[in-house]
């Protein structure tokens, strides 16, 4: 029964893989004006169990005094000495076309020297956009998803207790400006490319059966909305975003030396080269030996080190990689050499230095 399930699963994957190999426009581009906006605000988290800001954070007592003054209580910041309050920065992302009353998530990050935000509550904090206008209000109990505990000799920490979230703790108070024009919209590619922009233009014009789309540059495609589609702009954009294209990409090899990860693009080609790779291993082993003098002699007992050096060089074959080799053939040749990911990094850097790599080499 289990074997039959695996066969059915593989058949299903093969069946689905035959249905379209392109990417939807919504996956490679966005509609100009339909973008999120970043919100930020300064607030206080109260109710902490002695893990709040210390005396080094001078702005926390001042903030407490300002908050109390708005509530009719006047007190000098110098007279405030509490450790159950922490100053924080609150950030949130306002989605496009948000409406008043929508609830969003907030990220709360300590601004002072607080040890933990566990168990605290964020006091009402206005969140502003880049234009300085207030678009939302954040308030509620914070959730850190971690812990910190310890004594004088040892401590333990899980995750980051000075960064927390408030699920649904942001209430939208003001809608962002609507940047959509019912007569003309613009599609912005996530990865600028002239070939991909031309393909988007062709696919949209084929769908609308007319020259309604025009690629402006390698990033944007401008669409004149047909007269009969202007009353239902949302439905029109939904149909446009669902169209599939074959996005083009640069020939690129990306190397992450920290993790040893190598990603090779589909269009990577190599000129004719002879490739050989081997490892040289040198082992140095020292064994201390004790040298004792003869009886009744005036010599001293000394330690004489004995060094053994062994050199091992891995034998490797010389592979000929012809011009225009595809990525499949290159991987097959490298696998035949038995190279590791660390070896791949050195190999591609050497091929690039020789001028034989017809691709961009990006090292992270």
Explain how this protein is built.
There is one protein chain. With 364 residues, the chain is of the alpha+beta class. The protein has 3 domains: 130 residues, no CATH class; 62 residues; 75 residues, no CATH class. The chain is 22% helix and 35% strand. It is built from 7 helices and 23 strands. The strands form 8 sheets. A 6-stranded antiparallel barrel has the order 3-4-5-10-7-6. Strand 6 and strand 7 form a beta hairpin. The longest helix is centred in the N-terminal third of the chain and has 16 residues. The two termini are 47 Å apart.
Topology:
Elements: H1 2-17, E1 23-24, H2 25-28, E2 29-31, E3 37-46, H3 59-70, E4 86-94, E5 103-110, E6 121-128, E7 134-141, E8 147-150, E9 155-158, E10 163-172, E11 184-189, H4 194-208, E12 213-215, E13 220-224, H5 233-241, E14 244-245, E15 252-256, E16 261-264, E17 269-270, E18 273-275, E19 280-291, E20 302-313, E21 319-321, H6 327-337, H7 341-353, E22 357-358, E23 360-363
Parallel strand pairs: 15-23
Antiparallel strand pairs: 1-14, 2-11, 3-4, 3-6, 4-5, 5-10, 6-7, 7-10, 8-9, 11-13, 12-13, 15-16, 17-22, 18-21, 19-20
């Amino acid at each position: 029964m289990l074997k039959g399930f695996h066969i059915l699963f593989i058949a299903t994957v093969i069946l689905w893989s035959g249905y379209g190999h392109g990417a939807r426009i919504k996956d490679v581009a966005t509609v100009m004006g339909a973008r999120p906006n970043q919100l930020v605000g300064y607030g206080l988290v109260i109710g902490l169990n002695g893990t709040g800001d210390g005396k080094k954070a001078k702005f926390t007592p001042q903030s407490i005094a300002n908050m109390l003054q708005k509530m009719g209580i006047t007190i000098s910041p110098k007279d405030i000495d509490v450790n159950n309050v922490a100053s924080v920065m609150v950030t949130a992302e306002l989605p496009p076309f948000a409406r008043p009353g929508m609830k969003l998530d907030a990220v709360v990050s300590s601004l002072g020297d607080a040890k933990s935000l566990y168990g605290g509550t964020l006091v009402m904090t206005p969140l502003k956009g880049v234009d300085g206008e207030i678009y939302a209000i954040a308030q509620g109990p914070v959730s850190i998803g971690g812990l910190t505990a310890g004594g004088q000799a040892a401590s333990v920490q899980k995750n980051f207790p000075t960064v927390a979230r408030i699920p649904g703790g942001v209430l939208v108070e003001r809608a962002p400006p609507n940047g959509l024009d019912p007569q003309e919209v613009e599609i912005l590619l996530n990865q600028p490319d002239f070939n991909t922009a031309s393909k988007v233009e062709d696919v949209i014009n084929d769908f609308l059966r007319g020259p309604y789309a025009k690629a402006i540059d390698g990033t944007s495609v401008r669409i004149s909305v047909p007269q009969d589609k202007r009353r239902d702009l949302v439905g029109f954009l939904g149909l446009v975003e669902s169209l599939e294209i074959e996005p083009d990409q640069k020939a690129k090899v990306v190397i992450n030396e920290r993790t040893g990860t190598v990603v090779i693009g589909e269009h990577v080609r190599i000129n004719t080269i002879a490739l050989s790779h081997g490892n040289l291993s040198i082992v140095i082993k020292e064994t201390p030996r004790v040298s004792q003098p003869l009886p009744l002699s005036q010599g001293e007992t000394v330690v004489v080190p004995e060094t053994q050096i062994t050199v091992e060089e891995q034998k490797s074959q010389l592979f000929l990689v012809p011009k225009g080799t595809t990525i499949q053939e290159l991987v097959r040749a490298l696998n035949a050499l038995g190279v590791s990911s660390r070896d791949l990094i050195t190999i591609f850097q050497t091929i690039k230095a020789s001028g034989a790599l017809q691709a961009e080499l990006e090292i992270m």
